[in-house]
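Appendix C reproduces, verbatim, an entry submitted by the partner laboratory led by Prof. M.T., so that reviewers can inspect both the input and the predicted structure.
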Amino acid sequence: MKILSDENIKGMVSYTDCSEIPAFVVMDYIEGPNLKEAFQRNYLEDWHDVLRFGVELTTIIRKAHQLPQRVLHRDLRPPNIMLKNYETDPENAKVVVLDFDLSWYRDAIEVSVAHQPALYGYLSPEQLERTPGVSTKNAAVDSFGLGMTLYYMRTGRDPVFMQQKHVDWESKVFEIADDHPYQGWVSLPIRYANLIIQSTKHKQSERCDVAEIKGELEQLLSIIENPNGNIAIDLLCQEIATRCASSLGIKKNIWDYDTEKAIIQMASGVKISIGPNWTSQSIKGLFEWSNTGPDKYKNVSRYLPDKTNRALSILKLAKAKVKGNPSYNVDSMSFLIEFNCVNKNEDIEEVSSAFVNAMREFRFD
């Protein structure tokens, strides 16, 4: 705490004095609820508040990590995070981090205070089970605590011991998207849920680092605060893909964060791929279909050219630039359309509607 105060790290509770005999520490009094109390009092209902407090929290932890002494908190959980002055001035409330019983810094002696089992869900697995070659002095320990805290902020549920290894962990996290939709940007809750999953990977080396968590939360917050601003192309693509999937009744996450694209499979066999064209900073789409043999599609060859042309007209109205001529083969009953759309988030409604209408041309029912 003295290191953090001396280095003027804002957002950490300030240290004033201490004594060993009698044992005490003097620090600033913080007026306001902690995150657990804030959730229980319904202060965290709004996505904007959840994200702005998330950004503040990760910014504070990141600054502590960047000090020459590299201070790790290692005990991030809702009761240790307060919202200063929230009840008197909620719009200007600030995050304050406290409780450094488990913290570590360079040259510190590895001695920690024991935890109650009920709080184990916020501790990284390497803090609970010693693993050869895995250090508890790694910043990914705080990534885990941050991820579980983000989980609590939307669900109000404390994670249980080793919950990240439960078979239903990911499905439970993605329930956030159903329970807390955001109408202005339907994929925002899905990205938030995925951030929790990536931050709480059981294997330390697979977790997002704190800088990545901070960057993702900042992107999501900017969507709310400045929806007409410069939004990253991959976020635009995911939003369009999510809207298209929703129009087909597909509610699960269809975005692949490794390949950075979405694959939507229609009942008719049509496959739609949506992803970023990083070179041109545009939205790349691909419609393809090939006959899989069911008798119900045996007459597709009669109207495949017309349907393909109608889909092209719809896409062109949305300023799509089709790559070459559409490729379709009436003998093998297959087609391929590749196109790019402009990267302007103000056109997202138009582009999404065009994608959906083009998809409807290929239902073949």
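The CA atoms of residues 163 and 169 lie 7 Å apart. Additional entries are available on request from the coordinating office.
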